[in-house]
Design a protein that fits this description.
Blueprint: E1 5-9, E2 14-19, E3 24-29, E4 36-42, H1 52-59, E5 69-71, E6 77-85, H2 99-104, H3 113-122, E7 135-137, E8 160-166, E9 170-175, E10 192-197
Antiparallel strand pairs: 1-10, 2-9, 3-8, 3-10, 4-7, 4-9, 5-6, 6-8
């Protein structure tokens, strides 16, 4: 049996990864408490991307459970959540951290997931005028009873992971979230690992 391909996403960075339909994608948090932003784009020639709002609407929950799907902006199945070996929670409400967020925090020119997405896409020859909202794996930001949103430290343990199955040929972008001025990622930003098991 072929060994999975392993990609390390260094702290505060992002990587583009091409996968084929049927491939299994395991996103692993080796050290624990590290949020990972995930995007998926169709590679069939028509622009389509993983849509968190479409996914929430179709599965009728804040985040799919194992066996359920992530849907595209066109309402097509892109990924299936095969296994969630994390206590969660995960997030599909927040946008990627960006330069404006860090400027508001007094940290201009800070690494951020939006820029890391755009850099990863540029390396694939893709330029977008917008950034879709990501799937924020391992992010602890459940809505409060009064409706407020509070991002707390991730409770993901070392080695916590999710496994996804590609339901079409996709370009994925995976980041190791850059937030280091807030408890989001625990005490420090750390790496994310991605394992790809080929369907072939």
């Amino acid at each position: 049996m072929q060994e999975p391909a392993r990609i390390v996403v260094p702290p505060q960075s992002g990587r583009a990864i091409r996968v084929k339909r049927g491939d299994l994608i395991r996103v692993i948090d080796p050290r624990g408490q590290q949020v990972s932003d995930l995007w998926a784009f169709s590679t069939d020639g028509k622009l389509d991307w993983l849509s968190t709002s479409q996914t929430r609407d179709i599965v009728e929950r804040l985040f799919p459970k194992s066996g359920e799907h992530f849907y595209s902006a066109a309402g097509k199945i892109m990924l299936t959540l095969v296994e969630d070996a994390s206590p969660g929670p995960h997030d599909m409400l927040y946008p990627a951290c960006d330069n404006a967020l860090y400027e508001r925090a007094g940290l201009p020119n800070h690494p951020n997931c939006r820029d890391n997405l755009m850099t990863a896409l540029a390396g694939e020859g893709i330029e977008l005028p917008f950034a879709p909202d990501p799937v924020d794996l391992f992010q602890n930001s459940l809505p409060q009873p009064d409706g407020t949103l509070v991002v707390e430290a991730s409770i993901n343990p070392p080695g916590g992971y999710v496994t996804l199955r590609a339901e079409q040929d996709l370009l994925l972008v995976v980041t190791a979230c850059s937030v280091d001025h807030h408890p989001t990622n625990g005490d420090a930003c750390t790496e994310i690992e991605v394992e790809i098991s080929s369907a072939a």
